[in-house]
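Service request form, structural biology core

Requester: graduate student, group of Dr. S.
Request type: structure prediction, single chain
Budget code: on file
Notes: please return the result as structure tokens.

Sequence provided:
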Amino acid sequence: RHFNITTTADGLEYSDTGAEDRLHDNRARSEEEAILWHMYSKKSHAYHSALNFYNASKADRAAVIKFLQSI
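Core staff response, request fulfilled:
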């Protein structure tokens, strides 16, 4: 199960989404999509990492996804 974590005036709020969504706001439906969403802006802190993932070989991308699914 996946959890949505949001910041509120009182601190952090956790909610069980019951879905396979990714990212803090649940807009990504897979690990790959979550990574690629970080390319939305060159000002994103993760832009260059996401770009490296995008340019990686299919085998390397699969290895990253496998790792993420293992943690």
